[in-house]
Specification:
The protein is about 70% helix and about 0% strand. The chain is mainly alpha-helical. Pfam families: Mito_carr (PF00153). This is Mitochondrial carrier protein.
Amino acid sequence: MEFWPEFLAGTSGQEFIAGGVGGIAGVVAGHPLDTVRIRLQQPRAAQSTAAPIRATALIRQIIATEGALALFKGMSSPVATIAFQNAVSFQTYALCSRFLQRRDKEETLSYKNVAIAGVCAGTLQTLILTPVDLIKIRLQLLTDRVSSSRAVRPVGPLDIVRGILRKEGFAGLYRGLTITVIRDAPSHAVYFGTYEYARECLHPGCRVNGDETLITMLTAGGLAGATSWVFCYPLDVVKSRLQGQMPSDKPHYRGILDCMRKSVQEEGLNVLWRGLGTAVTRAYIVNGAIFSAYEMTLRFMNPRPPGGLGLETPIDISA
């Protein structure tokens, strides 16, 4: 009975809550552009009509044919779980960072150790992200598939989950786990590394005293998100296609390399970068919101400046 009050009163509990708040802020800020990104990444042949290949044209088409709320399709799945996933990611990063900082007796965490902690965070959170992304992508692609069929389509996340469990078993929820790890482990090193570097450039000394402004948080967070997405985007295209592929006796893509090879052969090399502009714009908005919500929540819960991801509290390196 006393676990939760004690947990939430400590540094780890506050980081966990702040990570959850940041995750929710990111979903709400970026889901419409995420729907556009997912649809742009899909094979042309898989769509029932000649879907636009430009983001602005696709947005107009979605609003005209499906209504504005269609841009928020699939949002309930990530909102229901993203708080926990983002909390795990940020707290894993903070815990690994403090361990590495103490181990190497660093006054300020080195960028090498920032990258290592980022890899750890990115790898662990894929266990939560993979099924969430799978459900979200299936929901976001429903309209194109159903318009060419008279079959009754599922109407929500639970319908998607039941369908996957019935046809593919529990392992089906983790379709795309390998490509998600390959994408997220290194991209999180870039993600947290860019954030720490950018905030220090914009507000020198803030990695020690944690007194950066909201503008610094928004800008550094936005740059971190945009940079990490450029770094991993071709892998994200492959991931979206593999997870968007419905189970069949003869799947079009039989693995990561096969998906990449066939996509390039059928649609050209540019297919690996289709929708990049939308993804980068969304990433800037979303991750500016995530880092700002995270940092401001920590400051609200602990009036003493928590210092960016809880790492600026001085550590005794003389021991």
